[in-house]
Amino acid sequence: MNYDIKSMTASEIEAVLKQLGQPSYRAKQIYSWLHKNKASSYSEMTNIPKTLIGKLEEEYPLNGCEIKRRQISEKDSTVKYLFELSDGEFVESVVMKYKYGYTVCVSTQAGCKMGCAFCASTVGGFRRNLLPGEIVSEIYTAENDLGITVSHIVLMGMGEPLDNYENVMRFLEIITSEEGHNISMRNISLSTCGIVPRIYDLMQKHLGLTLSISLHAPFDEMRSRIMPVNNKYHIDELLTACRRYAAETSRRISFEYAMLSGINDTDECALALAKALKGMLCHVNLIPVNEVRESPYHPSTPERVKRFVELLEKNGITVTVRRKLGSDIDASCGQLRLRHTEGKD
Ligand code: SAH
């Protein structure tokens, strides 16, 4: 694949510049402009000769994203962006402020193929994979806009990161590079609906990031109903991969569990979940489901969530309930784009 310059590693940029008769230090300068200074145009690169800038502008146009909408939560200052990509596709990112710093939640695809019944990203289907340079642009554009530097990244926006595997791996390489943004892999979480072969591929890489698995149900029949990917990779196959991953990398896996009232929040589900995860280096993150207009699901009551937590804890599973941020700004993945493309606001 031919990558755009923002999706290239420093050594790939060096090869491009060599062909243009440029010394190798120029590659470092350009890489640093792109990924340290978060430049969105070549004209900002003041130590690069004008003639070279002209050539780069012509032959290697910079892809980025433009802010189409920005919503700021009045409750907790969570900021949600709707970005427009160079070909007119839309993706979303969310910036959240925590005690330890800023976390950005990025999209890896425009739309999604996975079809989870409760998720807004899936309405409207799959559009395309994002390039590594577009994923970094989500972060840089938000940082430049807010005048902040983020310390943590979660790949939990629109799309399935392991369905855009090569580009996401390249994104991780660029965003963690010392000559670039230099974010620690330890501060990155990648969330997947469970594409088993790619979990094994990721395991081999020993990246040090946190793997999150969107489990959402402890029974195959139930999980297949809300997450079609389960028809391909059943729960036991997925959990075997997770056990191997945790053992091989010594990294604790985080299981995401959206609480859907009357569906997956019963005592029976809690006990089955505890049994399925027994002995694994893991953690359960309960998320009261965000209501999506197009889906029939409602969040579990606080009493149900409390009971679910108690049952898991009693059975030796560590569990947290995710704090709900940005609930007044459609901050669940895909919701803002959906409203925009429907022309509702
Ligand atoms: N495709 C990846 C990452 C994107 S979704 C994955 O499936 O993990 C990030 C998380 O938000 C997933 O756990 C997803 O299941 C969850 N999610 C999607 N829609 C939701 C909703 N309406 N309410 C609560 N969580 C939701």
Structural commentary:
- This protein has helices at 10-19, 25-35, 50-59, 132-146, 165-176, 196-205, 220-226, 235-249, 267-277, 302-314, 335-341; strands at 65-72, 79-85, 90-98, 101-105, 109-111, 126-129, 152-155, 188-192, 210-214, 253-259, 282-288, 319-321.
- With 345 residues, it is an alpha/beta fold.
- It has two domains: 5-59, DNA polymerase, domain 1; 65-341, Aldolase class I (TIM Barrel, Alpha-Beta Barrel), CATH 3.20.20.70.
- Strands 1-2-3-4-7-8-9-10-11-12 form a ten-stranded mixed beta sheet.
- S-adenosyl-L-homocysteine binds at residues 114, 116, 118-119, 156, 160, 191-193, 214, 256, 258, 287, 289-290, 292, 332-333.
Q: Write down the CATH topology of the largest domain.
A: TIM Barrel
**Overall 3D shape:** globular
Could you name the CATH class of the largest domain?
Alpha Beta
Proportion of β residues?
A: 15-25%
Biggest beta sheet attributes: 10 strands, mixed
Instruction: Write down the secondary-structure element order.
Output: HHHEEEEEEHEHEHEHHEHEHEH
Q: Structural class of the secondary elements?
A: alpha/beta
**Portion of residues within helices:** 25-40%
Query: Could you tell me the number of beta strands?
Result: 12
Round the Cα radius of gyration to an integer and report it.
21 Å
Q: Total helix count?
A: 11
> Regions with pLDDT < 50 over 5+ consecutive residues?
none
Characteristic key phrases:
345 residues; alpha/beta; DNA polymerase, domain 1; TIM Barrel; two-stranded antiparallel ribbon; 12 strands; globular; binds S-adenosyl-L-homocysteine
